């Protein structure tokens, strides 16, 4: 299926509504039937399957597991713990808050770069119009209009070629991002180098640590064992670089290591984060202490997301300005050249 996993906005809405329904005392099957009336076709099918299995006495987490990868692993594991402890309602509300925070961060980033992107597209549209005009108009002396942009592009064909170049550049950018997200050729092993980029690197690391610590806090609070909790938290980073540390963490915990000791054995976390986890452990139970740490990193993540959005916005602005300045200079040079030719003695 094209949508192989439930969208973030969908899972946030589902957990919030499901928790509210449970709090009101509604029947689980009825809630699932109601949820199956909205969302994508894949989502409706998955929720109808859940309702069918729940009506036959199947536990919700087991039914989710049979749906493959559609439901996020965190949702599946937390649902299992919520059902076994009788705290499914509380679990759903906790998950809803977690997913809503992630969704708010994503929307804030998109909102921050929307205007600069639209302005860049508008600038490219102006250049496209100029290229089209160069092919349509004919000078009084005959022939073609002077190529003031210096690209050798004129008319509708020139516009198509121009946008072909733009799309090729975008394809390379998105291809690189896709390859990184899928860890093609182990490219995620370069994450430590990425974190060294001033401004961008520390912000990305902070957002990743915020997601990790929040998932860890949710898992521990729900009653999951430390090994499974850390595994889920590592998986929540959506990075094979962090997931690869799962075995090292498990070995450390089974060897008697504390939570901070296990994270140190993972060899993927910065020293200051491990120190904060160690201090948090000394101040209370694992669930309570990590929850406080997660709250702190949630706030840091908001600041980091604003920083990344600012960098992205600045990059778009800089690109737009450089492109427009380049073509304005080319245009002025072309016009000045025509004036010089006109002033030369015959």
From TrEMBL:
Subcellular location: Cell membrane
InterPro entries: GspF/PilC, T2SS_GspF_dom, T2SS_GspF_sf
Stretches of the chain forming a coiled coil according to its record: none
GO CC terms of this entry: plasma membrane
Record-annotated Type II secretion system protein GspF domain positions: 14-134, 212-329
Topology class, membrane: Multi-pass membrane protein
Highest taxon in the source lineage: Bacteria
Keyword annotations from UniProtKB, A to Z: Cell membrane, Membrane, Transmembrane, Transmembrane helix
Transmembrane segments: 108-137, 157-180, 307-329
Pfam families membership: T2SSF
Entry's family note: Belongs to the GSP F family.
Name recorded for this polypeptide: Type II secretion system protein F
Organism listed in the record: Crateriforma conspicua
